[in-house]
């Protein structure tokens, strides 16, 4: 391979990584809020179809919704959380500053969010409505754990 090409590719990779970290605080806040809103919309579809029974169970829809939630969980959202984006320093956010004082707790919740969302995706693809409903509740617990600890009222 051409040496010059390699160095340009390496340079491009080196430049492209920090751009993620350099997202403005405003963009971090908007992006994470949008991601959670999107996850919430998809959680609502699964709830309606498997828990409440207020909408007919459509396995394709439920599987797609679970996939979308897992995608949010696995998307590497931690880069959207800079210290300056907490509600003691930034506007229009409910992120509490203790998020940055309790990294072990954040980590534990984030890991369980990913694990339970991945499990929901698998069960939704398999299609057992009762099993999906049970796993939906487990995912919901991880959402709630994070909100109870780190999201202002
Ligand atoms: C790792 C912690 C964490 C997890 C896990 C989490 N959230 Fe949140 N969520 C937050 C924080 C923090 C905010 C506030 C964000 C802000 O205002 O900047 C938030 C905000 C929201 C919002 C409001 C968004 C807006 O428009 O302001 C909704 C809706 C929401 N979360 C739903 C969910 C759902 C549903 C799940 C699970 C499928 C979930 N969240 C999982 C931490 C989390």
From TrEMBL:
PTM per Swiss-Prot/TrEMBL: Binds 1 heme group per subunit.
Entries under SUPFAM superfamilies matching the protein: Cytochromes
Cross-referenced Pfam families: Cytochrom_C_2
GO CC, any one term: periplasmic space
Residues where heme c binds: 143, 146-147
InterPro entries tied to this protein: Cyt_c/b562, Cyt_c_II, Cyt_c_prime, Cyt_c_prime_subgr
Gene Ontology terms describing biological process: electron transport chain
Gene3D superfamilies noted in UniProt: Cytochrome c/b562 (1.20.120.10)
One of the record's GO molecular function terms: heme binding
Keyword list, A-Z: Electron transport, Heme, Iron, Metal-binding, Signal, Transport
Signal sequence bounds: 1-21
This protein's name: Cytochrome c556
Organism: Marinobacter nauticus (Marinobacter hydrocarbonoclasticus)
